[in-house]
Amino acid sequence: MGALVLKAVYSVLRSPQHDFQTTVLKNPEYFLTAINRVFLAINTCILIILGVTTFWLTKNIAISLIAQSSPFLSDITLFYGLLEVSPEPFILASTLLFALLIIAYPYKATIETSLFHNKIISADLLFVISFSFISGFGIASKLTFIPLLLIPLVVLPKFKNKILFIIGTILSFALCTYPIIHKIGWFFKAFVFPLLAHDGLYGAGEGDIVDVGAYMSNITYILSNNVFFSILLTSSLCILMISFGVPRLRRVSIGNINFTSLFAVSLSQLLGLVITAKHYFHIGSYSPLDRYFLPSVGLSGVSLILMIFCLKEVGNELKDDATIPSLFHKMGHFMTTRYVNGFMFILIISLLISGVSWLRTTSNNSKFIRDAILEVYHKVEHDYQDYAKIYYSKSSSPEASLYFSHFYDKYNSEVLQKLYENAYYYHFIKGKLYHWKSDIPFEEIVSAYGNKIIFQGSPLSSGDLIIDALGITPKKHDLILNVVYEGTIENIYEVDIHSHLKNETEHSSEGS
């Protein structure tokens, strides 16, 4: 999708001086903006389809609004799913399509009657194919989608359908990753297996599967910072335990598709919580990796809908039972009346208003951050044009972003080195400095640029400690770093070098 957008934009911006590759790499922000708008349009269309389809099936405006509210129930889905250029907008799209299938599945007979009069395909097979394709696409977008695969495995009836779903998902994943299928083995070896076997981010850290202390702390942090999700998950688990645990209600819950779907959604959310907690915090910082939790919180809307359906099933059972106390009769009548829909409607409107308000605040904050980033960018471009620029964690420069993606694909090395010859990057996990084609010793940068070296990235505790903080310890140099720009989100440090190498160079010059 991104490649198609790039090609379309380039056809408008085509320049005789530069080819496609150079034009994109010279103007990354322009092309990223175009991609973001396309991603936003895709998710908007999916939300419209979700709302219209839900209303067509349920004939209930409140339920359709709840279905469409999912992105607005958490700042995680709003920020990462709608505002960024990353895999998360596709993860959000896949999650919303999953929600559509979950809501539609109890109405499969209606769908079969309305859409397939001549029985070209059964409704069950249609849902198997749909779940398979979306699952393969979601996993290809990001592995954080994997917990959602539990939903069709639980919901789809018959063992045959589950096997077909697994085979279909594998085929869909292969299709969606076809352009990089030759690198799948490398990806699992270099990324997935280390990720499972180490307790640090991206396969770094100690050789333990999990750091138990940090793990429990992360779970507590996730639940406390996603209050609405925690309330929904707790409520759904309580409904399920009561419905399956109370003998009187088992005849309603067991075999009922709404209870089965709620169980599947809750199970996938719990698995998402368990997986996310393993790598929730970034190495060396206190910034949580909220984006990993997007698939789980993205199911909040459909979870709320399923709870309403389940409560109505319980209400229908209770209101007609003369053997139970009158209080439960009243509860049963309440749960089957329109008061529930009215209450949920008010709740969702409140959450939507809150989400829109948060989005406005985030937009203002983003403008503030953008202005701060541009200030740093212009200062570096104007004052340090002929300097070696070393970028590190959370640097806002385009070069730093290009470096991050470049680690996974060296295809553009030649062009990048030509366009950004004096740009370097420090990889915080590998502990090495890189210059587009390969890693490079710090001494080589000093030899080429002398004192004309700057570091740009997130503020550190002390400019004098930046080398230790980055893990760079040149044996031949004593470094003094002066803060020449102190910003709100990042600093610029200028290097002052007193080196043995410099002295050796002077002596050799005198000798000659």
Automatic annotation (TrEMBL):
Which keywords are on file for this protein? Membrane, Transmembrane, Transmembrane helix
* Top-level taxon of origin: Bacteria
Spans through the membrane: 38-57, 63-83, 90-107, 127-151, 163-181, 227-247, 259-280, 292-311, 339-359
Please state what the protein is called. Glycosyltransferase RgtA/B/C/D-like domain-containing protein
Organism from which the protein derives: candidate division CSSED10-310 bacterium
Classification lineage: Bacteria, Bacteria division CSSED10-310
